[in-house]
Amino acid sequence: MTHPTPTVPAPVRRSPRAEYERTGSHREPAPAARAVARAVAAFAAARLTGLLAVAVAAHTGDQNALRLLGRSWDSRWYTGIAAQGYGRTLFFDEGVAQSDLAFFPLYPALIRAVHTVTPFGFGACGLVVSWLGAVAAAVGIYKIAARLHDHRTATVLVLLWGLLPHSVILTMAYTEPVLTALAAGSLYALLTGRWVWAGTLAALAGLSRPNGFAVAAAVAATAAHELVRRRGRVSPRLWTGVALAPAGWCAYVLWVGFRRGDPLGGYFTVQREWGSRFDFGRGSWRFVQHLLLDGDKVVFTVTAALVAVALLLYGLLLCDRAPLPLLVYTGVLLLITVGGSGFFESKPRFLLPAFPLLLPLACALVRTARARPRHAALVVGALAGLSLAYGTYLVTTARMPL
Known about the structure:
By secondary structure, the protein is mainly alpha-helical. The chain has helices spanning 16-23, 33-60, 65-70, 74-84, 106-117, 122-148, 151-162, 176-191, 195-206, 213-229, 236-244, 247-259, 266-273, 282-294, 298-319, 324-339, 347-350, 359-371, 373-398; strands at 89-91, 97-99, 277-278, 340-341.
């Protein structure tokens, strides 16, 4: 008498969002310290090579590499605030006034703190803060990707983030590394159900940059989703996190408003005086038309291409059904970047904290590496070459605001 062969069910492959919603805060992966260290080492190697390329190019052109990295463009505003506090305004023709009130206070405060305990100058202290922030961001990015996918994908994601065309910013005295570190920490806390930590880190992110509000938006959207999913039966910690999340951003905006005599509109007046405003993309579209019809510098053309690629990657992130916190955070960053006018060439820098955009690429590259390792190595090599060459060009040759 024959017995039927038992049927083995096929493994179910869930999307990152489905896995996140299924496990909630109960699944707590513990990525091995050695795996995290390898990912951070790969990121550090990429950025140190970039630093070396900038140093060589600066030396060849009789420029000071440390000054280029620590005292360029916005870095001078941040180090000035760290040294002397707020109160500086530059006036230009056509009613343009650039006030240091446009710059949020967390990064200058960190520079000041490092300067207090070290013998370094303010520019060097800015670099120390940024470099430490970049390493912390790499760890946070790794932990998010390892939770949603696997260790290999997490390592590739960290490496890709370090090889972006504008990743040279991660080794300059700018705020993007600090914002990314705080955002990654808050998003990881959301994915693991740590609401108070998510709200606290979101509040600090809101004190670091204007677009740091994207982290608070992710906290609020995720909390709303939890309320609906659990029919209102949520922990008090959720309400605490939601209340904390926008506190940093709102506090600074209100402080600038009171200082300017217009509590609700003062900060936005400062931004308009800089030539920055949110106009639903009209200014960006006019600039793209100018590029297409008249032609212009290579930086503007590359910027337009990178923003278009970012929009495509967000579409792929949506198709992959990424967890809600990542979608909201990245979507708000994209909306602010595309919808804002002024300083078109800085838009790729504004998108550096939008690391979830690279998740689809990291997954695709891991699949390619398993099937065709040489192809994957060629792609990574090409990205590294582009990153080194373009980053060095931006810092040493382009001589335009980053």
